[in-house]
Structure formats: structure tokens, C-alpha cells
DNA sequence: ACCTGAACACCGTTCAAGT
DNA sequence: ACCTGAACACCGTTCAAGT
């Protein structure tokens, strides 16, 4: 793992490329996001990105070890953008709902970054900020530490998993996406009741429902279940004898 | 969309390849699954599959229009394998739990097929069978049609989304996977309490919890909420005046 | 110090030619 | 009828050479 990436201190000394562009991590990430926005998720390759920057593709390896590192930097920038315009209201349930829907929308806007970052930890600035923020909302709502982490995990995985699912679907070529919808109408909605009674009975609902994302409903389910837990916790702890870290001891 | 795929009737006339192998859709799918199992998700390419079959890569295009079609055939075969050993018990909640966990496990065993098929509809034999089966479990439990479809959608998306998430993570090279876990221990667990109080307070829980899948918990949440709905529905319909399709009329 | 250009080892897909 | 081989238009990544 030898250092091939430019150490931050040395970056000031950089030289313009052939076409007069001065490269930087920020410029590369922004250009990559623009490329995804304008030409779809598949437009992002080291070679195309180099072309868009007016630089040789190989010059990017001075800023990112692999394409993977670049994608994580993009993912972190997306988290940053999602968080920057978000304001907490003090109502934990409304705050989490808002955050979840923003994360989901952010994923849909940048499908490829969303799919890659959904199962990755970046350990970068904005991701850390997001973790701190969500945990803060839960702990200040009154969830004990272990419970706050469990709900944080479920909440984040749900947003990322559905975000990746829905954005992978949205990133398909238009023709293919229409072909998918047609499968429900042309194949499922036409199965005879004698061989497939349950599909035949519910075909109308299937065609309508499967065209929508199941994320909003899944999010409400999670928030509802969490509210139930919180009510339980509050009613049980009439005596606030528990020290802040007492719940930690219960973990194996 | 000209027919380049061999019509089923003509397949009997096929000729062995150079190395004496007789190609077929089944053989190709099985070989692809073996390749994924033995050499990881990235080992699957048209060229490698051709090599594994002892045939020219281009010959595969007689059986599948694109790599995509091949992946859908693989996905359907996986659905079939998941269903083949499953037996309903009559307890809808236990049945769905079992099915969900099997789908999740199946995804983990074949990450690449899982990631691709998670957002696709195959419209093939086993997928149709699976839809019919899950809808049957829900309708026979007493859920009205519209509700059964909503729960079916949430259940399937959840299994597929978490399956894709967890299997993408599992498919990472071992070194990368270990580096990910290290981020929680080395970065998050060392943030100072004055700048990141919530992370610092819950670091122990984060390290432990984030290493596990959140799917089992998410599944229980869904089953619990569904059971709640069913209880509501049952208590309200003391008078079974509703005709079988009465719920359909309530949909916009 | 930073960027370039050539090279390496791959991809998916098409199509005329072989058997 | 089915498979092959060559070709096309791409990939990510490395490294010696240029400025």
C-alpha cells in the first residue's frame, strides 16, 4: 500500500493540465457528480471523467487510489449536501422522517453513488456528522444508548437499502424500465384464476402498487415501532435511577 | 427486436461445441451459478462463462439476448431453489418469517445475482410461483386483497433490498471488508466526546451492532405490524357482510 | 511535482464465415 | 442450425518518460 495519492500539503504546487485545468479533489468530485446528473450513472468512468476534466485519465490516480475511493468521496459529498439544508425541529419522529425521505431522494438523484455507498462506510467528514446527528436525535428523544444504536442501524440500513433498490431501478434505460412495468400488466395481470387464484384476485392492486416505492410505508412502520418502544421505556422509568450508561451493561 | 435467441423447438438440433459440450439454457445457468460460487461474483463474465463451458463466448448469445437476460434466468433459478425446499405450516407469520430468511440467505449465497435481481421483475416461472405463494399465505390468513398486496410488496422489497445490501457487502474482497470494520473501531470509536458526544457515548454499541445485519430485526418489525393490522381487521369484521372483492372497490 | 502516453489485461456485443 | 473468430468500442490501472 505505497503512497501514490498526493499528500494534501503538496497539492498547492500542482500544475495545470494540457487544457489549462487545475485538478483538485473537489473539482474531480463535482465534475463526477455533474457527469452522473447529465449523462446517467453509466457515464462515470475514469476515462470519461478524465475527458470531462480535460486531463489524462491516469492523472486521477494522484487524487484517488481507485475508482472506489472516488465513489466514496462522491458519496460523502452527497451526505453533506443532504445534511446542509436539513434543520432539526425538536420532534424526533418528524426529524427522522424528514431525514429518511431526504436520504432516499438523494439516492434517487445519484443512483450509482447510492448503490455503491449503500453498503460502505466512508469514515469521512460528512458521514461522521450524519451518524452524530441521527444518534443525537434518538438519544435526546430519550432512547437509551443500546436502543438508540439499534434504531439508528435499522433506520440507516432501511434508507440506504431502499435507496439503492429504487435508484438501481430508476437508473435503468427508459425502454427497459417500461418493459418491467409491462411484465406486471402483460404477464401477471393475465394469469388465469384456476392456476394462479391469488394473483388473479389481486392483479389490479399488484399493477398499481408495484409501480410505487415501498420506502415511505416502510419508514412509517419503523417510526411507529420506535415510538411504541419509547412509550414503553418512558412508562417504565418513573424512577430515573438508571445511570446514563446502565443500558450498556446489558449487551453481551 | 429481431429474434436472435434460439426458439425452444429448434434447440434439439444443436451441435456440440469444439470441446464436445452440448449447450443449453439449463447448462449455462448452472455453470454460471457454479462460477459465482467458486470464484466470487466478479468471476461472471460472458468471456469467462464461455471458457468454463468450453465454448466460444459469442455462442451464448444464441440462448440469451444480453448478459442481463442471463442474470434474470439465474435469479429465477435461485427463486426456484429457495421455494423448492420450503413447506407451509399454516401459521402465516412463521411461514413468512421462514420465507424471508430463506430469501435473504439465498441472496447472500449469490451476491451478484441478488444485487441485479433485487430491482427486476423476471416474469419467469419460479418468480410467478413465489408471488402466488406469498399472496396465498397473506390472503388465507385473512388479509383483504389491497392489504395483502401492500404487505406482499413491503415484505418482498425488504427481503430483496436487505439481501442486496448484505450480499454486496459480503461480496467485497476480504481485505476491503476488514478495512470497513476497522473504520468503526479506528475512526468512530476514537472520536472525542467534546466534538462528537453521541458517537462517543455509544461507540461500544456501534462497533458491535454495525457488524451485524439489520434484516432479522426489520423482518420482525414488519411481521409485528402486520399482525397488528390483522387483529384490527378481524375485530372490526364481526359481520362477514363484505363480499370477497369488496375491498377492491376502495382503491382509487 | 505533476501530468502524459503507451501498454496490459480485461470487458460486452456483432456479424460474416465456417461446419 | 449452430458455433467460431475476428473485430469494434470500450473498461481500470500501472509505470516510465516528459515538462
From TrEMBL, chains A, B:
Keyword annotations for this protein, in alphabetical order, are: DNA-binding, Transcription, Transcription regulation
| Segments of the chain annotated as binding DNA | 45-64
MF-aspect GO terms: DNA-binding transcription factor activity; transcription cis-regulatory region binding
Could you tell me the superkingdom of the organism this chain comes from? Bacteria
Span of domain HTH tetR-type: 22-82
SUPFAM superfamilies referenced in this protein's UniProt entry, alphabetically: Homeodomain-like (SSF46689), Tetracyclin repressor-like, C-terminal domain (SSF48498)
Q: What is a biological process (GO) this protein takes part in? A: negative regulation of DNA-templated transcription
Q: What PROSITE patterns does the database record attribute to this sequence?
A: HTH_TETR_2
Task: Kindly give the PANTHER family that the UniProt entry links to this protein.
Answer: HTH-TYPE TRANSCRIPTIONAL REGULATOR RUTR, TRANSCRIPTIONAL REGULATORY PROTEIN
Stated name of the protein:
TetR/AcrR family transcriptional regulator
Q: Which organism is it from?
A: Streptomyces muensis
Q: What is the lineage of its organism?
A: Bacteria, Bacillati, Actinomycetota, Actinomycetes, Kitasatosporales
